[in-house]
Amino acid sequence: MPLYRDEAIVLRTHKLGEADRIATLLTRANGKVRAVVKGVRRTSSRFGARLEPFSHVDLQLATGRTLDVVTQAVSISAYGEGIVNDYARYTTGTVLLETTDRLVVEEKEPATQHHLLLAGALRVLSTGEREPALVLDSFLLRALAISGYAPSFGDCARCGEEGPHRAFNPAAGGVVCATCRPPASAMPAPTTVTHLAALLTGDWPTALQADPRTRREATSLIAAFFTYHQDHQLRSLPHLDLTPRANPAQATQ
User: Fold this and answer.
1) Rounded CA separation 116/17 (Å)
2) CA–CA gap between residue 176 and residue 233 (Å, rounded)
3) Nearest partner of 50 among 86, 107, 7, 17, judged by Cα
4) pLDDT tens per residue across span 189-244
5) Residue 178 CB neighbours (<10 A)
6) Which of 26, 34, 132, 189 is the most exposed place for a label (fewest CB within 10 A)?
7) What does the alpha-carbon distance between residue 176 and residue 182 come to, in Å, rounded to a whole number?
8) By C-alpha distance, which of 103, 108, 109, 111 is closest to 143?
9) Residue 197: how many CB atoms within 10 A of its CB?
10) How far apart are the first and last CA of the chain?
């Protein structure tokens, strides 16, 4: 079977037979790949814990008819070590993985931007540099943007009239002017719109200045926008624990 190498993040796994597993991977060059990991559930497996969810690995794979086969695995970053023992980080991490799995639909189609975004989010989440809630909100906005659903937080999403605008409507694509505003549009505070724009662009100095009320309002708008454009709720969302907590890394920013 032809061999190829790629780096990948493990999105999920499930059992196959008595000793094998099927791993769903997001690779840097080949997009989503489903591959068999033979003998990984045996205590003597040479793969050990390198192919668990959250793992960032360098792989050699053999191309198969329906599923590829992992033949070598070298750890790049074990993000799971900083995630699985903290409930807030873990529940956030599962949403990151599930979101990516849902947004990257086609297998073997390049998804380099999604791969880089996920790797960066898992790194920040595992180190505790940002609160899990901020990591998640920024990730959801940016993942949607990569997939072609970028919300507008400046000019009107319908007519392009220069902002700022007060109304926000998921179906319209973000903020809208008074003329284009559909019925039942949300009317977030101006500070919330600024916060949303900062999360989308990765402007962390601005995003970190938001107070808890602003963050909560932004989170609800992001959830509404995501649910509308994906037409489903993620299975992992109800388990989230995003209780604000002190973070020394943020306090020094």
Assistant:
1) 33
2) 25
3) 7
4) 999 999 999 999 999 999 999 999 999 999 999 999 999 998 766 776 666 765 54
5) 10
6) 189
7) 8
8) 103
9) 22
10) 51
Average confidence score pLDDT of the chain: 90
Token pair listed for 113: 């931007």
> pLDDT tens digits, residue range 76-119?
999 999 999 999 999 999 999 999 999 999 999 999 999 999 99
By residue count, the chain amounts to 253
β-pairing, 68-78 vs 31-37, is parallel
Phi/psi at 64 (nearest 5 deg)? -110, 180
The contacts of residue 238 (CB under 8 Å, 6+ apart) are none
Query: Does the CA dihedral 97-98-103-105 come out positive or negative?
Result: positive
Q: Kindly report the CA angle at 221 between 103 and 144, in degrees rounded to 5?
A: 20
Q: Kind of pairing, strands 3-16 and 20-27? A: antiparallel
The answer for 124, left when phi > 0, alpha when psi is -120 to 50, beta otherwise, is alpha
Which residues on adjacent β-strands are paired with residue 14? 22
Distance of CA 90 to the CA centre of its chain: 13
- What is the 3-state secondary structure of the chain? CCEEEEEEEEEEEEEECCCEEEEEEEECCCEEEEEEECCCCCCCCCCCCCCCCCEEEEEEEECCCCCEEEEEEEEEEEHHHHCCCCHHHHHHHHHHHHHHHHHCCCECCCCHHHHHHHHHHHHHHHHCCCCHHHHHHHHHHHHHHHCCCCCECCCCCCCCCCCCCCEEECCCCEEECCCCCCCCCECCCHHHHHHHHHHHHCCHHHHCCCCHHHHHHHHHHHHHHHHHHHCCCCCCHHHCCCCCCCCHHHHCC
The position carrying tokens 């920013």 is 253
